[in-house]
Specification:
extended; 5 helices; 4-stranded antiparallel beta sheet; alpha+beta; 11 strands
């Protein structure tokens, strides 16, 4: 995910912060994924039977309970829960898409390397998603932020091997939460979830970048982090990280 030229900006602690977000998932599609995405998004747009049946069962149960002896609320609640369970069972079929993979040997080996690399990543003690960043340009803000040259808005993120609820498959892909979106690394594409909408990016169109970066940690330092120096909470201009 890289900052877009028109990325939203806001002011935090006197610094202009640019949000780091991807594009709209509806625009994330190509010819190879169009049919799958149309099916997934169409099923997601269907009304949940669990809601409809829960309400209908609850109303009927309430009046039936009242008619047989004045225990309408009790019967209504029981019927409501029954309707929700039955509707949820039906939703588990009508709102779910099945993706079955029969990988050739080379493709299976390549996907295995991706999964192995992801498992290494999950072993890191600290994992964050950087939601926004901004350059510190004045002395007062520089002092207030322990001599940092950049201010970042980072939050803990989740890395897990799991499928989205709308998909059943014979593979369980690595997934990464990046702000409001979740990336699922399927064998043939990256499925992107944003709320109840889904997009996809083919691996041929996917670009990743890696670069080491030093930053000032004011919270708990991860156990596997390399501490390269220390600084004052409110340094003088002449002070440098040591």
């Amino acid at each position: 995910m890289t900052p877009q030229p028109s990325a939203p900006e806001y002011i935090a602690d006197g610094v202009v912060m640019r949000e780091i977000e991807s594009g709209d998932v509806i625009d994330m599609r190509d010819e190879t994924s169009a049919e799958v995405l149309d099916e997934i998004n169409a099923k997601q747009s269907q009304t949940r039977l669990s809601v409809i049946l829960a309400v209908l069962f609850g109303i009927v149960g309430f009046f039936v309970g009242k008619a047989i002896g004045g225990v309408g609320p009790v019967v209504g609640v029981a019927a409501f829960l029954s309707g929700m369970l039955i509707g949820g069972w039906f939703d588990g079929y009508r709102r779910v898409s099945v993706l079955y993979y029969d990988l050739e040997q080379d493709a299976e080996a390549a996907y295995g390397r991706l999964v192995a690399a992801f498992e290494t990543l999950t072993g890191c003690a600290g994992r964050w998603h950087v939601a926004a960043g901004g350059k510190i340009e004045d002395l007062t803000t520089w002092k207030r932020n322990a001599g940092a040259s950049m201010l970042v808005d980072k939050k803990p993120t989740t890395l897990a091997s799991t499928l989205p609820q709308v998909v059943r498959s014979n593979v369980t892909p690595p997934s990464i939460h990046v702000g409001r979106q979740v990336l699922y690394f399927m064998p043939d594409l990256v499925l992107v979830k944003d709320g109840n909408r889904y997009g996809a990016v083919g691996y041929a169109d996917l670009r990743t970048q890696f670069a080491p970066s030093n930053f000032i940690e004011t919270g708990r330092v991860p156990s596997d982090a390399q501490v390269i120096g220390y600084t004052w909470t409110h340094p003088n201009k002449s002070v440098r990280v040591r």
